[in-house]
Amino acid sequence: MNANASAKELFETGVTEFANARYDRSVANFTRAIEKDADNALASVSRGAAYLKLGSLDLARDDFDRAIKIDPEYARAYHMRGLVSEKRGDDHTALADFDRAIELNPDYGAAYYSRAALHAKMANTEKAQEDIEMVAHLGNRNMESFMNENNVWHTQQMRVEDAIETELQR
Q1: DSSP letter at 105?
Q2: pLDDT surpasses 80 at 168
Q3: How confident is the model at residue 30 (pLDDT cuts 50, 70, 90)?
Q4: In angstroms, what is the C-alpha Rg of the chain?
Q5: H helices within the chain, ranges in order?
Q6: Hey, CA dihedral for 84, 86, 88, 90, is it positive or negative?
Q7: Around Cβ 1, how many Cβ atoms within 10 Å?
Q8: CA atoms within 13 A on the CB side of 169
Q9: Mean pLDDT of the chain
Q10: Are 35 and 47 in contact (CB under 8 A)?
Q11: Does domain 7-168 have CATH number 1.25.40.10?
Q12: d(Cα 110, Cα 83) in Å, to the nearest integer?
C-alpha cells in the first residue's frame, strides 16, 4: 500500500488481511488508518479484534476502550471488551460489558451468545437458557427478514410449486 493511501483504503486492506488470518498485517494497516483518522471507532475495534486474535489482550482492551471513548454508544466495542475480560478470567466485568452491548443494541445476537456462554460457565443456567432462546429468536427473525428482503422465500416457494406440478404431470 502506498504512502498516500487514504484511511478508508488502509482500513479495507486491514479487513482483507484480517479475513485471511494475517493479523499482524491487519494491525499494521488498521494502525495506519487510525493515524490518518484518529476518530475512526471501527478501525480501533477492528485493530482490537486483530490484537485479540494475536493474544495481545492489553492492546486489544486499549483499542476497545478507545472506541468506546470515541463512540460511547458502540455496542460492538463493549462486546469485544467483554471478550477480553472473559479471557482474563474477570467474568463479572465481562458480564457488565455484554449487558451494556445488549442494552445498546437489543438485536445483537453475538452479545447474547457470549453472555449465554458466560452465564453457563457461572452456573446461571436459567439466564443462559434465556439468552440462548434470544439467540435462536434473533437468528430466525434475521433469516426471515433476509429472505423477505431478498425474495428468497418466494423463490423457494416457486421451486416447490414447480416440483409439485412436475410430479402431478407424470
Answers
A1: -
A2: no
A3: very high
A4: 21
A5: 7-19, 23-36, 41-54, 57-70, 75-87, 91-104, 109-121, 125-149, 152-168
A6: positive
A7: 12
A8: 6
A9: 87
A10: no
A11: yes
A12: 11
> Residue 17: CA atoms inside 13 Å, Cβ hemisphere, count?
23
CA distances, 121 to each of 3, 33, 128 (Å): 47, 37, 9
One-letter identity of residue 54: L
C-alpha span between 131 and 120 (Å, rounded): 10
Output the pTM of the full model: 0.81
d(CA 122, CA 112): 15
- Return the sign of the alpha-carbon dihedral for residues 65, 71, 75, 77: negative
d(Cα 67, Cα 37) in Å, to the nearest integer? 12
Q: Quick check: helix, strand or coil at residue 148? A: helix
* One-letter amino acid for residue 167 of the chain: E
Grid cell in block for residue 81: 471488551
Distance separating alpha carbons of residues 47 and 15, to the nearest angstrom: 9
List the chain domain ranges: 7-168
More confident residue, 1 or 154: 1
Q: Dump pLDDT digits (tens) for 96-114.
A: 999 999 999 999 999 999 9
**Quick one: cell of 47?**
485493530
